[in-house]
Structures are given as structure tokens and as C-alpha cells.
Specification:
144 residues; mainly alpha; 4 helices; 89% helix
Length: 144
């Protein structure tokens, strides 16, 4: 029995190491996808601005301020990012309802963390991504 317990502890240690490695890998890939999607969104907005560059150059000549010219693009950024953030929170809620009972059955001592960290993370990402995009749009329109 003592030898089996030692073997189980060693086996549990390797499982924990593997799960930590797997979690790190998933988080790394997720961060890479987030950065690439942020870049893609910025490029898409730049293309829309470039497409309308002649009109955007004429608006300040007609008396519109840079913030007024940038406002529709900023609203687009807020709406798109808001919808994506809301969908992400909904998907996380659904996934939690699926995997938490599964983990509780496998691991009786498992106590899930609350849902608040996911919501706070979504809010933080929303604020950071929207701020970066709005800054990029204002800078781009200001250069026209």
C-alpha cells in the first residue's frame, strides 16, 4: 500500500505538470489569437478610413472637428467589441455549465471559481481593445 501511494503521488504530480503545461499552451494560443484579432480589427478600420479618405479630408474643411469625424468609427468599434464581449461571456457561461459538473464528478474536491473573474476579464479586454482602437482611429483621421 505505501508503494502504491507513492506511485499514485508521482502519477498525480506528472498529471498536474501536464495540465499546467496544457493550460499555459492554451492561454498562450488564446493571447496570440486576441492580439491577431485586435490587429485585424485595426487594419479593417484603417481600410474603411482609407476608402473614405477623400470625404474625410473634406469634412474638416466644412467645419467638422476631428472628434466629430471620428465619432461614427468609434461607435462602430464600441458596438462590435460590445457584441463580441457579450458573446464571449455567454459562451463562457455555457461552457462552465458543461465542464463544471464533469470536473466535479472526476475530482470530488473540485470547487469552481466564481464567474466574476471572467466578467472582469471581459470588461478589461473590452476597455483596453476599444481604447487602442479609438486611439488608432483618431490618430489615423488626424493624419488625413
Amino acid at each position: 500500500p505505501a508503494g502504491q501511494r507513492a506511485q499514485l503521488k508521482l502519477h498525480d504530480g506528472s498529471i498536474v505538470w501536464f495540465l499546467n503545461l496544457l493550460t499555459t499552451l492554451v492561454v498562450g494560443i488564446g493571447l496570440l489569437i486576441c492580439v491577431l484579432s485586435l490587429y485585424l480589427l485595426i487594419i479593417s478600420i484603417y481600410l474603411i478610413i482609407q476608402k473614405n479618405s477623400e470625404k474625410l479630408k473634406n469634412l474638416p474643411l466644412l467645419g467638422y472637428t476631428i472628434p466629430a469625424v471620428a465619432a461614427p468609427y468609434q461607435q462602430l468599434i464600441l458596438i462590435v467589441n460590445g457584441i463580441v464581449s457579450l458573446l464571449a461571456v455567454i459562451i463562457i457561461a455555457i461552457a462552465r455549465r458543461i465542464y463544471i459538473p464533469f470536473l466535479t464528478n472526476i475530482w470530488p474536491d473540485f470547487t469552481p471559481a466564481g464567474f466574476l473573474p471572467a466578467i472582469l476579464c471581459a470588461i478589461l479586454l473590452f476597455v483596453v481593445i476599444c481604447s487602442l482602437n479609438i486611439f488608432a482611429v483618431r490618430r489615423r483621421i488626424g493624419k488625413l
